[in-house]
User: What shape does this take?
Amino acid sequence: MKIEVKKNIMATNASAAAKNRERLLEHGICMVNLMASPGAGKTSTIIKAIEGTGGLLNLAVIEGDIASEIDSLTIEAMDIPAIQINTGGSCHLTAAMIGAALDHLDLEALDLIIIENVGNLVCPAEFDLGENARMMIASVAEGHDKPYKYPLIFREVDAILINKIDLLPYCDFDLAQFRQLVQSLNPGVSLIELSCKDGYGADELCDWLRETASRNRADLRS
Amino acid sequence: MKIEVKKNIMATNASAAAKNRERLLEHGICMVNLMASPGAGKTSTIIKAIEGTGGLLNLAVIEGDIASEIDSLTIEAMDIPAIQINTGGSCHLTAAMIGAALDHLDLEALDLIIIENVGNLVCPAEFDLGENARMMIASVAEGHDKPYKYPLIFREVDAILINKIDLLPYCDFDLAQFRQLVQSLNPGVSLIELSCKDGYGADELCDWLRETASRNRADLRS
Assistant: This one.
């Protein structure tokens, strides 16, 4: 007898993801799954998104980490609802974890939920959370060769933020080669150059989020 | 009936790790498991190790990646035996994968094997590969708060390389706070400041590798 562990895990996850998607649809909420390596700037990016969309969108954040709640405390200090998920040892969020987090949010009051996934370029890309859009961050300090090594995540996302663009003069990051590599894996992807440190590109990020949320609402109506 | 998947996976891995350790012992080889986030500088660190220990140690490298063989080609171009493992979707190496790689190396001719694990701070720390020492890289660009979020890996290693130390003037990385955090999780750990870009700290890294290899040989004799 062969136990199809991975197949079962994926089927269970897909059904929980479908439930999440249905709940978001009922409330006209757009949910974005933000993925990246550890230390690429996920929380800093969310802070820029809050600063740039405040007053225009009602936002909440779901923070996924192996341990600690420093990220959700940072977000709550900005008066934004934040749910911290500690996965214990697990290297990615699952749709069931997100379902439990949605139970703790006032869905009537929200337009946009940003999920900060666990810092990892591998497994988060395999797990549908019921999100409407997927965004990843590639940090200039990580080098331009990451699409070769982690092709799935670069293929699966709707937007790639090239963060820490302020470090470009100090790193061996070939921006043209990176863009070319990414376009070959994922021709339609939005590429946004960003510096969370000095705010460069934050407007473009917030425009993308607002357009994604309003396209999602338009899709709901049609 | 409860299927203890994780327990079984871990038991199978532990037995493969014990076999690897026995093979290394027979041949007096020291094996070091190098772990880090994507883009922290694992391959660049191995290149510095090859340059600094060449002639003193007979080295081989096992490269773990989801996809691509660019890293093993880089190492082979330095006339060092390199085995590439492509894990497919898996976010970490296992002891069985390392066992298969050892079959392809001339163990009689080696003193030191460096394993470059998959870029990930989570699961690699949970899987014993049969190694004699564990080393991780923390990149200055990732920020000093990583030990809060990924405590297991910071606890489990024998040495932490603080790489991209040349980026210190351009990043919000509090070196004193990082050192304090790490010492509280792992009091005996060796901390080495490194810049693979300008070579700073490479001597200290190579000294550590040589001492670890010779301590391992001394342990074998006693």
Chain A touches chain B at residues 3, 5, 37-40, 65-68, 70, 89-91, 118-123, 126, 139, 141-143, 145-146, 148-152, 164, 166-167, 170-172, 197 (CB under 8 Å).
